[in-house]
Amino acid sequence: MAELESPQLVAARLAAQAALAVAKADLDRINSTRPETIAARQADLNAAKADETLAQETYNRQIELARTGNAPQARVDEVTRNLDTATRKRESAEAALQLATTGASKEERALAAAQVKQAEATLNQRDVDVAEFTIRSPITGQITARVAALGENFSAGAPLFSMIDLQNLWFTFNLREDLLGGLKIGDKFDLTVPALKSQVIPVRVTMINVQGQYAAWRATRATGDFDLRTFEVRALPIQPVDGLRPGMSAIVSWANRGR
């Protein structure tokens, strides 16, 4: 029926879309490892292993010379230190390769996934807000009045259109309580509608409800009498009636019904 505009909500939706794209990109980054990084870590490990092998061989030669007294203790201490350093570098290179191959930890993956879900929820809320820009009628009917005009500002809950549901029409009568005469829900009677060439329409009572004190019939005598209440009686056509519209008058021969 109408479309509303809100630049603030549209901008918020775009921001939510961008935030979701960033969260998804971060999740993809955490869940993936670049082949170049793994290759570089493997090369570092190979170099560390080669250095460790060289240090081990140097250490073995110096220990053998030290046994025969041909190597000073200072040299033995130096090669021992070099072997230990090469071993630590090899262990560090192995850990770096393992980290590059495995990728992020479970906690980091869980955090990234949660951020994606949070961004999706925010975007869904913005989508719902923007979808409410389109005003749809809750019924299938006819418009009787249009309050809205192009470019006007409306607050929440303000009426935009008045509509009638031609498939759900009823008749309403106001009766004094002394005229009800035992009328009850489900009773049937006939009425005529002058606008439809006095067509006789059978109806069924669907509601009997007392009206407020303001609708009471006052007693004609000052004493010894009481005020009569007014009741609203609603009657529904038993069969659909072509041409029937809200506001039409209806006539009931109440005297013919013994009331």
Helix-strand layout with pairing:
Elements: E1 2-3, H1 7-30, H2 35-67, H3 73-102, H4 106-131, E2 134-135, E3 142-146, E4 161-164, E5 171-176, E6 188-193, E7 199-210, E8 230-237
Antiparallel strand pairs: 1-2, 3-4, 5-8, 6-7, 7-8
Helix pairs in contact: 1-4, 2-3
Descriptive overview:
There is one protein chain. The chain is of the alpha+beta class and 259 residues long. The chain has three domains: 130 residues, no CATH class; 29 residues, no CATH class; 87 residues, no CATH class. 44% of the residues lie in helices and 17% in strands. The protein contains four helices and eight strands; from the N terminus they run βααααβββββββ. The strands form three sheets. Strands 5-8-7-6 form a four-stranded antiparallel β-sheet, with no helix packed on it. The chain has a two-stranded antiparallel ribbon with strand order 1-2. Strands 3-4 form a two-stranded antiparallel ribbon. α1 runs antiparallel to α4. The protein is rod-shaped, with a radius of gyration of 45 Å. It starts with a strand and ends in a 22-residue tail after the last strand. The mean pLDDT is 83.
Supply the key terms.
single chain, 259 residues, alpha+beta, 3 domains, four-stranded antiparallel beta sheet, two-stranded antiparallel ribbon, 4 helices, 17% strand
Summarize the entry for a quick read:
With 259 residues, this protein is of the alpha+beta class.
Estimated helix fraction: 40-55%
Gyration radius over CA: 45 Å
Spatially, the strands of the biggest sheet line up as 5-8-7-6
Helix-strand string? EHHHHEEEEEEE
Instruction: Name the structural class.
Output: alpha+beta
Largest sheet: 4 strands, antiparallel
Into which percentage range does the β-strand content fall?
15-25%
Distance between the termini: 47 Å
* Number of E-type strands: 8
- Contiguous low-pLDDT stretches (5 residues minimum) are none
Oligomeric assembly? single chain
Number of helices: 4
- Return the average pLDDT rounded to an integer: 83
Question: Tell me, what's the shape?
Answer: rod-shaped
The total number of structural domains is 3
